[in-house]
Design brief:
56% of the residues lie in helices and 5% in strands. By secondary structure, it is mainly alpha-helical.
């Protein structure tokens, strides 16, 4: 018998473990474990859990169409699998376990290691597959080529039928009705903006490639346009694996082939595929360096960015930022969008992170936790590393780092104020000039909680000086850490060189 353990790979299409476990009509027990640890984790978010449960429902429906169903076990994952395996052995079986690698926190890494060792001790087969592309040994120089080789390979096809064994096992289980009732706090939301499940993932991809992708390369930084669907909206599906990046990549390439030389459209889809690769590169980093999810990349920042209790002034700034009441309209509209939708486009996430860390002087740890509590697509691999980037910690060999001007961004990213007026009704009726200049004294919308230029100067210098300390140490010490910093700097420089080339290509396409 084969045990098929689903985690953040809640799909049948292009799922290595599903295809291998169901081969040759071997009886398969598909299961998911509701681990209490996850639902008490401080980074858990209501929108994300609801998305997960919707995805489980869709997966169960697909399995039932193939003559099977999804078993929902509840308890400690390691204990559940050990008990299940032991009971099957006691019934004369020698089960094989199939599951895909996941990029996750230390808890998950140690859990997986313990389960693999348990199977090795019993001399039972345990197959670890890939959810998406991932190097399991560090071959950084080959990553780019191996990534595209993987993306171009044929996808794993879903089984037409699955042989469900008849079992008598004594393992705590939940029906879907019991799941809904027991975890009702995750279901009670006013509106679902991103419904979960593989079926919805493919529908979302199809609608993106049908028409929404046009202009992606410039629309992705415009918060109102992205809210309306100018970006793929696949991010929560990629987070929970209801669709693979390879499926998305190949569908995008097929669309390009069908366009028959439409340069502008092809340019948009190329920009989207670049973002897809960017997504997988962040997962790769966390796989080799799980500590960066919660620790500063360089210890020189530990006194400035940490989990220390916030001072009264910091707490006041932090709470205003959380509630979207900072007096900076684009910041506040974005933070209100996050609370309501569980989502923001990338540019607004970065800008709000920089504002909190640099201007408010609040550690990225606090901001990252708030994001994870609300984001439907919250992914430690991307989110927490991005927080360190926006806080000025990463790439210390570069003498500059970016600090977004939130009022300047209004003119650039929301020139007709559609986004701001939607999320801040207090500013409806005010013009672009008035909003950008803060001339809304008759409104009950708050005045700015801080002097942006002054905090940029003062706190920006503190971060800049810390970067200098890191740079001096790395240069003096040399070694692997310095080599890694050099590689990071070169990667960033190549990225901007590439962006400049792509911009020139865009000008050619538009002319």
């Amino acid at each position: 018998m084969h045990l098929l353990w689903f985690r953040r790979d809640l799909r049948l299409t292009d799922n290595e473990s599903v295809t291998l476990a169901t081969a040759n009509n071997t009886p398969v027990l598909p299961f998911f474990i509701i681990d209490p640890w996850f639902y008490t984790w401080e980074d858990v978010g209501t929108a994300r859990v609801r998305f997960l449960f919707e995805s489980l429902l869709d997966l169960d429906r697909q399995l039932q169409e193939r003559g099977s169903r999804l078993f929902i076990f509840e308890g400690n994952s390691t204990q559940i699998i050990q008990d299940l395996t032991t009971q099957l052995i006691g019934q004369g079986d020698r089960p094989q376990l199939f599951f895909n690698r996941d990029v996750q926190v230390e808890y998950g890494i140690s859990r997986d290691r313990e389960i693999v060792e348990f199977y090795q001790e019993l001399n039972l087969d345990c197959h670890l597959g890939l959810n998406n592309f991932l190097q399991t040994s560090d071959r950084r120089q080959e990553w780019f080529g191996e990534y595209y080789t993987y993306q171009r390979q044929p996808q794993y096809q879903p089984p037409q039928s699955i042989d469900l064994p008849t079992l008598a096992i004594d393992i705590p289980q939940l029906t879907f009705a019991e799941l809904t009732q027991k975890y009702s706090q995750f279901w009670n939301v006013e509106k679902v903006y991103f419904p979960g499940g593989e079926t919805n993932a493919h529908d979302t991809l199809d609608s993106f490639l049908a028409h929404r992708f046009h202009g992606y390369h410039w629309k992705l930084s415009r918060p109102w346009l992205t809210q309306q669907g100018a970006t793929s909206h696949l991010s929560p599906h990629l987070t929970f694996g209801t669709i693979s990046t390879r499926t998305v990549y190949q569908a995008t390439k097929a669309k390009v082939a069908a366009l028959a030389s439409q340069p502008k459209a092809e340019f948009s889809l190329k920009a989207f595929r670049d973002r897809l690769r960017w997504h997988d590169s962040f997962a790769q980093r966390l796989y080799f360096h799980p500590e960066v999810a919660y620790q500063n990349r360089y210890p020189e920042f530990d006194d400035w960015y940490n989990w220390d209790e916030l001072s009264p002034n910091q707490l006041e700034l932090y709470q205003a930022w959380q509630e979207g009441m900072t007096g900076f309209p684009l910041i506040d509209a974005s933070m209100r969008q996050l609370q309501t939708m569980g989502w923001m486009n990338f540019r607004m996430r970065a800008m709000c992170a920089t504002f909190l860390t640099i201007n408010c002087g609040v550690s990225w740890h606090h901001g990252a936790k708030h994001y994870m509590n609300y984001l439907v697509d919250g992914d430690l691999a991307i989110d927490n590393w991005q927080w360190q980037m926006q806080a000025g910690i990463t790439n210390p060999l570069s003498e500059t780092f970016r600090i977004y001007n939130p009022n300047k961004n209004i003119t650039e990213k929301d020139p007709d104020l559609s986004f701001i007026h939607h999320w801040i009704p207090e500013l409806q009726g005010y013009s672009l000039g008035e909003v950008s200049a803060g001339q809304y004294t008759d409104s009950y919308y708050p005045q700015p909680i801080l002097d942006w230029s002054q905090t940029r100067k003062v706190n920006g210098k503190i971060v800049s000086d810390l970067r200098k300390q890191v740079r001096a140490r790395l240069v003096a010490q040399g070694g692997a850490e310095y080599d890694n910093a050099i590689a990071a700097k070169e990667t960033v420089e190549k990225y901007w060189e590439y962006k400049n080339r792509e911009y020139l290509k865009k000008l050619t396409v538009d002319s």
